[in-house]
Amino acid sequence: MTYIGQQPSTTFDSGIKDRFTGLTTNTVTLTHDISAETDILVVWNNIVQDSGSYSVGGAGNKTLTLGGTLSSGDVVTVYYTNKVMQSVSPTAGSVQTLSINDGAVTDAKIADVAATKLTGTIATARLGSGTASSSNFLRGDGSWQSAGGANTPAFEAYKNVTANVSNETYEKIGFDTEVFDVGGCYDTTNRRFLPTTAGKYFVYLTVWMSTESNGNFEVMWADIYKNGSSTASQSISAYSSNALRDCSLAVCSTVVMNGSSDYVEGWSKILDNAMSSNPRLVGGATASKFGAFRIIE
């Protein structure tokens, strides 16, 4: 094919163009933004114009100034050589594995895909069932579970005042002052912990037993009672005159509680051969204590 004037050096899509007629000026307004004169091909009355014979300017270079003034019968056609005006979407299922270059889908391109955006089989296999969040974790069985948990109900109480005790008799210890009581399950009146949530509870008890200078303790016991019966016990014995005058015992155990009727208490017993020594349980915030908390499973 031959050309009148300068042969265009750039191929163009004849469907992307502007057409102007009936004008008597030397300027026209283009439909699309362009970067420079080289982005268009100007044809005036079927004659291709040299790019040096016109110029572009204004916002988006959309004002085209021609090398002469148009007559009303002139026809100016502007072709966009570097502009794609139409995209073609492939039909469903037409893109095969071989159509994608190796390494085209990079980690960087999919890094912003949040876990919550994935659904279906892939999401279940990769992320597990449930919803991921900042407060849960993915188990080995593929399910999301809440992270952490609360060791409650929980409490700690102490015996406030030192008091004498009977010889060779188990007595419930009067832990009457709460340090804390999360869940409100410790009864200061009956001196017992009755949790309202079923589970396994770690229960601990410390008892400080003392006597006067002429005391003669033989054996001391400290017990955790569940529902009125001992479920864990510790003891210390001497069987030697004046061997024990002041002693602290500690006992702890894991106790299963049904969350409705089960309760635990602290009990103790002293065997003293000289009751005139006034055996007693020592009170105070740092002496005899009783506490428990639920174990997270």
Task: Give your account of this protein's structure.
Helix content is 4%, strand content 38%. Residues 9-13 have low confidence and may be disordered. Strand 8 (136-138) and strand 9 (144-146) form a beta hairpin. The strands form six sheets. Strands 10, 11, 13, 16, 19, 21 and 22 form a seven-stranded antiparallel sheet that branches. Strands 1-7-3-4 form a four-stranded antiparallel sheet, with no helix packed on it. Among the domains are: 17-80, no CATH class; 154-294, Jelly Rolls. By secondary structure, the protein is mainly β. It contains two helices and 22 strands. The longest helix is centred in the middle third of the chain and has 8 residues, at 120-127. The chain has helices spanning 107-110, 120-127, and strands spanning 17-21, 27-29, 40-44, 47-48, 55-57, 63-65, 75-80, 136-138, 144-146, 154-158, 163-164, 171-172, 177-182, 186-187, 192-193, 199-210, 217-226, 229-237, 246-257, 264-272, 280-281, 289-294.
Summarize the structure in short.
This protein is mainly beta and 297 residues long. It has helices at residues 107-110, 120-127; strands at residues 17-21, 27-29, 40-44, 47-48, 55-57, 63-65, 75-80, 136-138, 144-146, 154-158, 163-164, 171-172, 177-182, 186-187, 192-193, 199-210, 217-226, 229-237, 246-257, 264-272, 280-281, 289-294. Among the domains are: 17-80, no CATH class; 154-294, Jelly Rolls.
